[in-house]
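To: structure subgroup
Subject: Chain for Friday's discussion

All,

I'm putting the inputs and outputs inline so they're searchable in the archive.
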Amino acid sequence: MSTAPVFSEVQKINPSAIIELFTLQLDNSLHGATTTYRFHSGSNLNANGEIVWAGNAYQRFPIEATGFAYQRGQIPRPKLVVSNALGTISAILLTVNQTTAGNDLTGATFTRIRTMARFLDAVNFPGSSNPLGTPDPTAEFKRQVFTVNRKAKENREVVEFELAGAIDMAGVRAPKRQCTRALFPSIGTFNQ
């Protein structure tokens, strides 16, 4: 991963569009498979709506992901709302729940990937030539990785998931280490 090309592109007078891609990775012990689902919420020049980046195909899928910003020092708790009109998500949930009843994708890894249109693979464009620039599978903003914390809502129209950062999960503790002046001289002394 290299952030320098995307920051250079963003600073231009007329930068190319930011492309938002998502992956959902299942865990074999929780879900019975290690399947990776790749999707995006936008459209593409291809008739099938598929975006290819870094050699991976991301399917167009009605999805809304919000809440990635850090606010007032709090770790983000994004929400993922996915269309269930075609029953695709319900089918995935049924398969997952056969391994762990009531799991509903809890523990799956969700990754938000952002790159620029300039760095997409050439197969996305007519004549397999990217008119915006040179494809670069390493040019991306820092990936945001979250874990599916719980399913908040499911009906015929949508399924909503709450996501959490790795350190923001219930029962997860940061490594403990006693801070002493010998190890950390800037700590100072405490008077009692």
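Points worth raising on Friday:
Helices lie at 4-10, 28-31, 88-99.
The first strand starts at residue 18 and ends at 25.

D.
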